[in-house]
Amino acid sequence: MYWLAALMSLAVVGLIALGLYLELRPASALQLPNWSKPAVGGQLVLFVGAQFGLLFLGINEVFADVETSVEVTETFKDMSTGMGLAILGAGIPTGLSTIGAGIAVGPIGAASLAAITEKPETLGRTLIYLGLAEGIAIYGLVVSILLLNRI
C-alpha cells in the first residue's frame, strides 16, 4: 500500500516540477527538450496506473471495521437513506438557483456597465435589473429552508 502512495507522490511531484519548468523557462527557449514529451506521457501513465492500483489493491484498507461500524450505526440510528436523500433534495434548489442567478447576472452586469458608461443616469435602473437577477438565488435559498423545515 505504501509503495503505491509513494509512486503516486513521485508522479505528482514530477508533474509539478515539469509544469514549473515549462512556466518559468526563458522566453528564448521555445522548443521543449526531446525528452520532455515521453517524460510527460510516462508521468501521466504512472499516475493513472497508481490511481488504479490504489483503487484495486487498496480497497480493503478503506472499508470500516466491524467494531467502528456498529458504533456509528448506534450513534446515527435515526439517519436513513430516505432522510439522506431528503436532505440532498433540500439543497438542490439552492444550488440550481445559484447557478441560474450567476448565468443571469453575467450578461446583465456587462450590459449595465455599458449602459452606465454611455448614460450615467441609468445607474438606478440597472441596479434594479441586477437585483432581480440576484433574487433568483434568494428564492432558491428560501425554498431550501422551507423544505428543511418539512423534513
Describe, in plain words, how this protein is organized in 3D.
The structure is a single chain. The two termini are 42 Å apart. Helix 1 (2-24) packs antiparallel against helix 2 and helix 5 (81-118) runs antiparallel to helix 6 (123-150). The chain has helices at residues 2-24, 36-57, 59-62, 66-75, 81-118, 123-150. It has 151 residues and is mainly α. The protein has 6 helices and no strands. The protein has 2 domains: 2-63, no CATH class; 78-150, F1FO ATP Synthase (Up-down Bundle). The model has no long low-confidence stretch (mean pLDDT 78).
What's a concise summary of this model?
The protein has 151 residues and is mostly helical. It has 6 helices and no strands.
Q: Which secondary structure elements does this structure contain, and how are they paired or packed?
A:
Blueprint: H1 2-24, H2 36-57, H3 59-62, H4 66-75, H5 81-118, H6 123-150
Instruction: Name the CATH architecture of the largest domain.
Output: Up-down Bundle
Please report the number of helical segments: 6
Strand content: under 5%
**What coarse outline follows from CA principal-axis ratios?**
flat
Number of domains: 2
* CATH level 1 name of the largest domain: Mainly Alpha
SSE string, helices as H and strands as E: HHHHHH
Oligomeric status of the shown chains? single chain
Largest sheet data: none
Overall mean confidence score, pLDDT:
78
Amount of helix: over 70%
Terminal residue distance: 42 Å
Output the radius of gyration: 26 Å
CATH topology of the largest domain: F1FO ATP Synthase
Q: How would you classify the helix and strand content by structural class?
A: mainly alpha
Task: Look at the structure and name the CATH superfamily of the largest domain.
Answer: F1F0 ATP synthase subunit C
Number of strands: 0
